[in-house]
Design brief:
Layout: H1 2-26, H2 36-45, H3 61-71, H4 75-99, H5 107-114, H6 116-121, H7 128-143, H8 147-155, H9 164-177, H10 189-202, H11 207-210, H12 229-232, H13 234-237, H14 240-256, H15 262-291, H16 308-326, H17 330-351, H18 360-374, E1 382-384, H19 388-393, E2 405-407, E3 422-426, H20 427-431, H21 438-442, E4 447-453, E5 469-474, H22 483-496, E6 499-506, H23 511-514, E7 520-521, E8 531-534, E9 544-547, E10 554-556, E11 562-564, E12 567-575, E13 586-593, E14 596-604, E15 615-623, E16 633-639, E17 646-656
Parallel strand pairs: 1-2, 1-3
Antiparallel strand pairs: 3-5, 4-5, 6-17, 7-8, 8-17, 9-16, 10-11, 12-15, 12-17, 13-14, 13-16
């Protein structure tokens, strides 16, 4: 029985982890990596209808070729492919540990699968897991003495991720070191294969290089990051326990390079060339690209999942070295191994939620896309800025004969979109990749807003940086629609559903509204007789002040159920005679305990894109803090420290669900 367990324990561990990961992604509404998952899925999904996708550089040809059959069954099956590849990667890491006589070898399976970044990346539709599998499988073949097979497999690595071109150099050195020269030309097989396959389509034998998908200097992604950005986030990449073991393992491997034992020395050199150096180079490459803002690098830590199994092999070497120097009993070694295993598992579960939920942006774009799918406009021609929309609608966004939907690439598209088409604009890709600011589509004469969507975990924002989705119908351009007014109307209806109680309606029409009629103005009014003028004489506006105990935070609905208020909405209208100065005028909500503020939320009016000589709607939504005492006081007002001149009217304050 003991021998049986020793022989098959790794299969038992793999099966248990596989079941856990499958359950994890099956019950998860979201996935790590955002919309890029959907983009890869769509290229794989439609590759059989549009074969050029099999050689589309951005989608990674090797990944597309492997995932396309799975994609025909649905998105979950593409996730399953990555899970299977992740399990296979862990298995071959175990086999590598056995070949290198690293003991204990069994923990490496758990280390690979529960490395934080690898754990969260396995149930995705992204390319890093395939990249890691090709790396580890090639390493296993090399160490097994299958040099020809290893060279062929690793030659396809650049078509899982383009960084693979650099990794080929280390295999070239490894083959030179072991004096296996004949397999060296096979390192070019993958590039030669795809060059020939794509030659007909691109009319260019060197398309692999000329069609490289990332510009050296990208016009959009050009922000310089920290040089040690990826090192700084080591905890979410490999976690502290494995990082400690990695350092120990690195020192041990470098020490063994100078060993008098030829076998040990050769083994360590190969381990450096196939594991340690590729990992360090990959880390250095991405650090440099992000630091210098090259190759569209934005510092995504998920890219490191492609090489974390290589780091784990070195970490296992560190664990073995630790036992070697401590000279402890087998029982104690097993206990320490178990502790590290638990710490590694804990490091993943500590960082990432179980199950994994959609981000607020994903939840919003999915909700907006489903609304279109269930609306009378579903059969209209669809235009969108996020590929989540065609995924939800089940249409091919790349097919043009005839098209059912198209991704918008430029603002000028708004001028040529067919009348009656639906445009689903969202603020992430709409502002960036599609180059359509919200103001541009709002002010376009052919666009009429018909629906707006915001993250359900926040109230409707007024700030430009808040995420939102807007659905438009394309019109003839005559008459021209006031989309700002339509948005305000839609938003008012939306937030009204979440309001429990009105705390204040101040129209500034009475002296009691301000305390002094001299501060009221008839110069310009949004509603009623007067507005309130903020100028060099008014640092603080009239507002709202009430103790928590008087707010009646708990309300009963029509069915008698008690509903507790969670937040406060403030609506205010502001009129500018001239632009506000580049300073601060703030709409403030403050909560005070014994005259000391412990919760302070503000909206900078100067940061809003207000129009001159007309009324602008201001909206502030805030979650209620955990109150320290029923005697605490909530205060809401406008603070004008620089004595700027503007008018305000119709201040409304509501308790919200």
């Amino acid at each position: 029985m003991k021998n049986y367990f020793a022989k098959y324990a790794h299969w038992s561990v793999l099966c248990i982890i596989f079941i856990l990961v499958v359950l994890y992604y099956f019950f998860s509404a979201g996935y790590y990596g955002s919309t890029e998952n959907i983009t890869h899925f769509l290229y794989s999904k439609w590759a059989f209808q549009m074969p050029e996708f099999f050689i589309y550089p951005w989608a990674r040809p090797l990944y597309t070729a492997l995932s396309a059959p799975f994609a025909q069954l649905g998105f979950k099956w593409v996730q399953m492919l990555n899970v299977l590849l992740g399990m296979a990667t862990a298995y071959y890491c175990y086999r590598i540990a056995k070949l290198l006589n690293i003991h204990p070898a069994l923990p490496v399976i758990i280390f690979v699968c529960f490395t934080p970044m690898y754990f969260i990346m396995m149930p995705t539709a992204l390319t890093e897991i395939l990249f890691s599998f090709v790396l580890v499988f090639s390493c296993y073949l090399f160490l097994s003495g299958h040099y020809y097979a290893s060279a062929i497999v690793i030659s396809f690595l650049p078509f899982a991720r383009s960084e693979g071109f650099f990794i080929l150099f280390f295999y070239f050195l490894a083959l030179l070191y072991v004096k296996k020269y004949k397999p060296i030309p096979l390192l070019a097989m993958g590039t030669l294969f795809f060059s020939l396959v794509g030659w007909y389509h691109y009319k260019d034998f060197f398309w692999v290089f000329t069609q490289f998908p990332y510009q050296v200097h990208h016009g959009l992604y050009n922000i310089h990051g920290e040089l040690f950005h990826f090192v700084k986030y080591y905890d979410e990449i490999i976690g502290l326990p494995l990082a400690i073991l990695f350092i120990i393992g690195t020192l041990q491997v470098l020490k063994e390079i100078f060993s008098r034992d030829r076998t040990l020395r050769n083994s360590s050199v190969i381990l450096c060339l196939l594991s340690l150096f590729p990992f360090l180079f990959y880390l250095s490459l991405h650090s440099f690209l992000y630091w210098q803002a090259l190759g569209a690098s934005v510092g995504l830590t998920r890219v490191m999942a492609g090489v974390t199994p290589l780091a784990v092999i070195i970490s296992l070497k560190g664990l073995a070295a630790l036992f070697q120097y401590l000279r402890i009993s087998k029982l104690l070694r097993n206990i320490i191994s178990g502790v590290f295993v638990l710490l590694v598992i804990y490091s993943s579960f500590r960082l990432y939620p179980i199950p994994y939920q959609q981000s607020s942006e994903e939840e919003t774009i999915f909700r907006a896309s489903r609304w279109v799918k269930d609306s009378p406009y579903v059969n209209n021609l669809q235009f969108f800025t996020d590929l989540t929309t065609p995924y939800v609608l089940g249409i091919n966004p790349f097919f043009n004969n005839p098209p059912k939907g198209k991704l918008i690439y430029e603002c000028v598209w708004l001028n040529i979109i067919d009348e009656g088409s639906v445009v689903l604009w969202e603020s992430r890709f709409g502002n960036n990749e599609s180059k359509i600011p919200l103001d541009s589509i709002f002010s376009h004469p052919r666009m009429k807003l018909i629906k707006s969507f915001y993250p359900s975990n926040m109230a409707i924002p007024s700030g430009e940086k808040s995420y939102c989705c807007m659905v438009f119908i394309t019109c003839s351009g005559n008459p021209r629609y006031d989309n700002y007014a339509i948005r305000d109307s839609l938003n008012d209806a939306l937030v009204a559903e979440h309001r429990l109680k009105t705390l204040l309606l101040n129209s500034f029409d009475q002296s009691t509204d301000v305390g002094n009629t001299l501060l009221l103005s008839k110069d310009t009014v949004h509603h009623g007789k007067f507005s309130f003028r903020m100028d060099e004489k008014t640092t603080f506006s009239p507002g709202f002040s009430q103790q928590v105990k008087d707010l009646q935070i708990k309300q009963r609905d029509s069915s008698g159920q008690v509903i507790e208020a969670k937040g406060i909405d403030v609506v205010l209208y502001v009129y500018l005679l001239k632009p506000l100065k580049p300073s601060n005028s703030l709409l403030v909500m403050s909560v005070e305990h014994n005259n000391e503020s412990y919760s302070y939320i503000s909206l900078n009016l100067n940061g809003q894109k207000f129009k001159q000589n007309e009324w602008n709607r201001v909206f502030l939504s805030a979650r209620l803090p955990e109150f320290q005492s029923p005697e605490d006081v909530i205060k809401i007002y406008v603070w004008n420290p620089d004595k700027q001149v503007f008018y305000m009217d119709e201040m409304q304050i509501f308790l919200t669900k």
